[in-house]
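FAQ

Q: What does a record look like?
A: Structure on top, sequence underneath. For example:
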């Protein structure tokens, strides 16, 4: 299993970013996928989950209405569109399959600061 995140960076408050996670080594179209994040000194937090076909999604309370998870099964890629970013969204964002005891990418840093 390999998960490779990209798209992080520095953005001003109120700005937007789109993260991508390219997956390989498993049957992507059969697998629910998740995004987590971890800020310095804090526990890893579930951000969003999407079902295998993409028809069902769920979000953490802190990102509801601002973030959107989506996927392209033809490209074996899951996305996280982040809008109205706040300084408290600053964290390393991780792509995941299988939950806390599953597989993780290397993470991509998102920093929201003026």
């Amino acid at each position: 299993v390999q998960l490779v995140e990209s798209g992080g960076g520095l953005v001003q408050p109120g700005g937007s970013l789109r993260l991508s996670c390219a997956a390989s080594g498993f049957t992507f179209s059969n697998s629910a996928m998740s995004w987590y994040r971890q800020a310095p000194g804090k526990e890893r937090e579930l951000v969003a989950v999407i079902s295998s076909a993409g028809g069902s999604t769920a979000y953490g309370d802190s990102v509801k209405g601002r973030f959107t998870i989506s996927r392209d099964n033809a490209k074996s890629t899951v996305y996280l569109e982040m809008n109205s970013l706040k300084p408290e969204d600053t964290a390393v964002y991780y792509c995941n399959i299988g939950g806390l005891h599953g597989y993780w990418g290397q993470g991509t840093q998102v920093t929201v600061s003026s």
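Q: Is there anything notable about this one?
A: The first strand starts at residue 2 and ends at 6.
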